């Protein structure tokens, strides 16, 4: 059949094949770039989730520090600093729970539900602890007497410190077991797609 074709037909056919191959290679390259962009965007989104968890852990450290300040010096100023740090921690946890990636992941959704419950319980205990410290400061002059907190106050303090530790462990678990592996998987896919796209680009050239 090829031998019986006219020269012009052969030229047109050859040209058509070249155009089709070029279009195919171009499409594959475009598709690769599109996939590459999607993978990098996914990796970037998970990186932002990771950053938010780091902020939660940093906030918990601040709460623990302000709790220690209030314990050593119960005053209006230290109690306000403690309340403010606790409110900021709660705001970070609640904001994290509204993230699209977080809501779409069942493990992170459960993590957020548990964290919000812990934060609410922590703040109730913190209010009670501050109330206990305020009542004691009103009835006892620490200027002349070195008086330890009551048994109830010490029990609340231990509970507050344990709550901070538990929330920090949960945030670290979410980072190490969910967010970091997912982010690394997206980065790996992006690298593989990048290599594939480069090979198609070389073929096209």
Question: Your description of this structure?
Answer:
- The protein is built from five helices and no strands.
- It has helices spanning 7-72, 76-97, 100-104, 106-139, 151-204.
- Helix 1 (7-72) runs antiparallel to helix 2.
- The two termini are 31 Å apart.
Task: Please give the structural blueprint.
Blueprint: H1 7-72, H2 76-97, H3 100-104, H4 106-139, H5 151-204
Question: In a nutshell, what does this entry contain?
Answer:
The chain is mostly helical and 205 residues long. The chain is 88% helix and 0% strand.
Which short descriptors sum up this protein?
205 residues; 88% helix; mainly alpha
Q: Which secondary-structure class do the elements indicate?
A: mainly alpha
CA radius of gyration: 30 Å
How far do the termini sit from each other? 31 Å
Into which percent range does the helicity of residues fall?
over 70%
Shape: rod-shaped
């Amino acid at each position: 059949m090829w031998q019986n074709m006219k020269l012009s037909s052969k030229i047109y056919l050859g040209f058509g094949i070249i155009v089709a191959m070029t279009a195919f290679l171009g499409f594959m390259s475009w598709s690769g770039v599109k996939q590459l962009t999607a993978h990098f965007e996914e990796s970037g989104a998970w990186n932002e989730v990771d950053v938010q968890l780091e902020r939660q852990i940093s906030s918990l450290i601040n709460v623990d520090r302000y709790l220690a300040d209030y314990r050593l010096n119960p005053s209006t100023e230290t109690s306000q600093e403690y309340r403010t740090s606790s409110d900021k921690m709660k705001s970070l946890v609640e904001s994290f729970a509204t993230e699209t990636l977080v809501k779409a992941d069942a493990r992170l959704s459960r993590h957020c539900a548990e964290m919000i419950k812990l934060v609410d319980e922590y703040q109730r205990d913190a209010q009670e602890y501050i109330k206990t410290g305020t009542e004691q400061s009103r009835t006892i002059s620490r200027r002349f007497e070195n008086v330890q907190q009551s048994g109830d106050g010490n029990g609340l303090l231990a509970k507050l410190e344990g709550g901070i530790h538990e929330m920090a462990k949960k945030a670290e678990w979410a980072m190490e077991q969910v967010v970091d592996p997912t982010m690394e998987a997206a980065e790996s896919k992006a690298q593989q797609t990048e290599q594939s796209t480069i090979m198609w680009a070389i073929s096209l050239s």
